[in-house]
Amino acid sequence: MVKNRFDIELGFYESLAKLFYCVLLSDNNLNKGELERLNKELDKHIVEADKHNLFSTQQGNELIGKKLGELIVANTDVWKVLDEFKAFKIAHEDLFTDEINTKLWKVVNALAFSTAGKNKSEIIALNEISLIFKQH
Fold first, then answer.
1. Cα angle for residues 43, 95, 78 (degrees, 5° grid)
2. What's the N-to-C CA distance of the chain in angstroms?
3. Which string of DSSP letters, residue by residue, matches 23-45?
4. Could you give the angle at which helices 120-135 and 5-25 cross, rounded to 10 degrees?
5. Are 57 and 46 in contact (CB under 8 A)?
6. Which residues contact 68 (CB under 8 A, 6 or more apart)?
7. Which of 25, 33, 63, 71 qualifies as a cystine partner to 76, CB 3.0-4.6 A?
8. 34: CB partners within 8 A, 6+ apart
């Protein structure tokens, strides 16, 4: 089934929520400071699907927040959502330019440092994410 542009862009932002969820919950702990840091980083490193975006930056960030909330409430497995992010990234490689990948890496790295520095779980998550960006 061919997806329309709206569905692809919606999937893009939902996949970003999955990426951020993986880092935020890799240690099975989430605090207010980490969510505040995510919002700050998203404002700092504006991530858009492409220059012909159907969603504004604010709408994209709201979509990320909504999906992130759903994942948190459902207590979704971190590694499952990382696999889903990877599958979306492979299927829509054109959306993940070098510039986008660099911005995403800056955001996930900042999230890992958002509280007391990187812990073992976050280092493992960052390593897996790094492999995804390097392979695809």
1. 70
2. 23
3. HHHTTS---HHHHHHHHHHHHHS
4. 150
5. yes
6. 17, 20, 21, 24, 38
7. 71
8. 24, 111, 114, 115
Give 114: exposed, middle or buried? Use CB within 10 Å, 0-12, 13-18, 19+. buried
Name residue 126's amino acid. L
- Give 49's contacts (C-beta < 8 A, 6+ positions apart): 8, 9, 12, 13, 55, 60, 95
Sign of CA dihedral 12, 22, 28, 118: negative
Q: Is the pLDDT confidence value at 54 over 90?
A: no
In angstroms, the CA 15 to CA 58 distance is: 16
Exposure of 104 in the CB half-sphere (CA atoms within 13 A)? 29
pLDDT, tens only, 105-135: 888 888 887 665 556 677 777 778 888 888 7
What is the structure's pLDDT at 47? 64
Q: pLDDT of 69-109, one tens digit each?
A: 999 999 999 999 999 999 999 999 988 888 888 888 888 88
Q: How far apart are CA 49 and CA 110, in angstroms?
A: 21
